[in-house]
Design a protein that fits this description.
Elements (H helix, E strand, L loop, with lengths): L2 H4 L7 H13 L3 E7 L5 E5 L6 H21 L7 E6 L2 E7 L5 E6 L5 H20 L16
Antiparallel strand pairs: 1-2, 1-5, 3-4, 4-5
Length: 147
């Protein structure tokens, strides 16, 4: 898990670590999982297999921004999530408010439906921790491309 949370340097956010661990338990297909802020920096993570969390979250943020720009340019609106498929696994990104996103690397042949359900639930839980329970979704920086 993210070193900053383990050391207690981010008071009020420690509950995120519990939610992330539970999401990984709920979906064994999740190999690595991270939550990043609008700049691509990790807030909390459960990365494995030598994954560099900074690279992982930066890729997630940049991929989500690029997908949003492309989606808006063809009139599809802001994507709820982005799915990247490779020969060695899947990468699933779920957008949240204020530029925060949840990113997961899935095992090859993973069930997308279950993973997406778990990540959506995690996104709602994280929104509750960061912005308060019942907080409305907040626009991320990638929605600025529509103006």
């Amino acid at each position: 898990m993210a070193e900053t949370l383990a050391k207690g340097n981010r008071p009020g956010l420690a509950g995120l670590e519990d939610h992330v661990r539970q999401a990984v338990r709920d979906c064994p297909d999740i190999v690595s999982l991270a939550v990043s802020d609008a700049t691509g920096l990790p807030i909390v993570d459960a990365t494995t297999g030598g994954a560099d969390v900074m690279t992982f979250t930066a890729m997630a943020t940049l991929s989500l921004r690029a997908a949003t720009t492309a989606s808006l340019s063809v009139g599809l609106g802001v994507p709820e999530y982005v799915h990247l498929h490779t020969a060695t696994g899947e990468f699933l990104l779920v957008r949240m408010g204020e530029g925060v996103c949840v990113a997961a690397r899935l095992a090859p042949g993973a069930g997308m439906g279950r993973a997406l359900d778990v990540l959506r639930r995690l996104a709602a839980q994280i929104t509750g921790v960061l912005y308060g329970e019942g907080a409305p979704a907040r626009a991320g920086p990638w929605t600025l491309a529509s103006s």
